[in-house]
Amino acid sequence: MKELDLRFDLNLLRVLVALHRWRSVSKAAEALQLSQPATSLALGRLRKAVHDPLFVRSRSGMVPTSRCSELAEAAAKALSGFNEHLLNQPAFDPATSRRDFVVAAVDVGELHFLPRLMVYLHHMAPHCNLQCKTFALNEIETAMEEGRCDLALGLFAELAKSSLHVQHLSTQRMVCLVRQDHPTVRSSRVDMAGFLALSHVVVRPTGLSQELFESRLKAQGGTRRVQLVTEHFMAVPSIIAATDLIVTVPRPIADYYARIEKLRVVEPPINIDAFPVSVFWHPCFHLDPAVRWLRESIIHLFRSDGT
């Protein structure tokens, strides 16, 4: 059996359907708004591609072969199906969908985004599920392109240089946290001498907020003693509440910690520019109805949140 040329021009399907319908090159050409020579040429290309005469002449005009009728029916269905999908993009109904969404975020992002987002999903998309995953920075774009990740949330400066779409949500400042009855930090701002005299907790997740603060501190000649380095935020509030340590974190995280432990927010000794928090998505899924709904929901919930 001879195979169909993989270079087959799909525009010929329209010609085949018209010829099969009108049984006339001139009428098919008129319907297609083509010239008769162009239509005849297309018929010749069709015959060569499918290895069949397609039409034979008789006293009543052009008579399709059985192979022609079979192909014309398949072509008509294909064109009809394509037009239906083209004109009727599938909608996403959050109230009934059972879509599983995957979002890239580090644990600081989870603390900031998930509580409010999950309340929203509970009411607006009760059957949808959300997975929060941590990807290496150099893997996020590929994961999105392959459909393994729908969105990335947070401070991902490297992604801003990629081909991903990005929507700025907010800017966030860094602040310090100490226990409420800290013996030496008593005002609303810790001075440089007091700051450097303390032992510090540093959280180093995937992201740049700590690196931005550290580089600014070093630029001003400051070197702090880091007594604890951790990659996770969850244990930090209980550690700060039980010790004389100090930690520097994004303001929304500090406010969250202060609600669950007896902690006090104080201003750091240096001013550092607020850093951007954004949502990123891949161009391949820019028009995907489900991904579009999720990112627009996140933009609605978090845009301009924070200071």
UniProtKB/TrEMBL annotation:
Domain of life the protein comes from: Bacteria
CDD domains: PBP2_DntR_NahR_LinR_like
InterPro entries: LysR-type_TF (IPR050389), LysR_HTH_N (IPR000847), LysR_subst-bd (IPR005119), WH-like_DNA-bd_sf (IPR036388), WH_DNA-bd_sf (IPR036390)
Segments forming domain HTH lysR-type: 8-65
Keywords: DNA-binding, Transcription, Transcription regulation
Gene Ontology MF: a single term: DNA binding
Family of this protein: Belongs to the LysR transcriptional regulatory family.
Protein known as: PCP degradation transcriptional activation protein
Taxonomy of the source species: Bacteria, Pseudomonadati, Pseudomonadota, Betaproteobacteria, Burkholderiales
Chain's gene name: pcpR_1
